[in-house]
Fold this protein.
Amino acid sequence: MKVKPKIGVVSCSGECCSLGTVSRVATRMVLEDLAFGETVTICLPLFLAGDSGERMFAEKFPTVAVDGCHKLCAKKAIEKYSGETAASVDVEKLLDSWGEKPPASRRELNINDQAQSYRVAREIAREIEAVKEALNG
Amino acid sequence: MPENPILIIPCSGIGKPFGTISRDATFRVVDELRKGRADTNCLSLLVMGDEEATRQIRESTCIAVDGCPLACARKNIEIAGGEIAAYFRVMDLLRENRSLRPRQVTFLDEDGLKLAEMLADKIASKVDELGGGQP
């Protein structure tokens, strides 16, 4: 039986604005719902605080970086410490392209903010599908 | 007494509810309970070695808030050359409140919210003790 490789999804921690919260919530929606069982994650700060095992993450799992803002911390940190990312999602750019504003609160997402996060999650899931297709040739 | 706001850095762990609690408690303090007297910044920026974030850490009185024993917030502040004036662990709060069992990660459940509220009160008291934002 052929074991399908899981896809890594790593979000920035994004404490400085609500875009980070959207990035994090959308990533969880992918893990729990849209690509449940097919995806794994790791806390981004572990790349620096953890051991060599953590740094093998992107080598072990083709990884999609999910960033709240243009600083692209997740993408850059993964590539600095672990390996090339298979794909990248920039939430700030996505919201701009949809003409949507970020949530007002970084702590609590209202029902509209949650719908926005789910829309972002679907974009992440789309990237995951593309990575899977590339892996399967 | 520090003139700058106290810098609170949570781990924001994404795998278990503890990281969400650390994050929620931090936002309660910086956005509500001690607005203007405490601040936060992205831990990811420190991981990346961002110059401005590193400078801010070195020039601030820092509080680290970690969800799990891996202590990512504390370790990353130390690696950046910051000094930690106070340290909170969600696991310690859980041990003191064994009846509370947070289970949800994405959006905290009732027990998770109670723990976040308790943790925020403790952090806010520490901000007062450290004199955050006092001229």
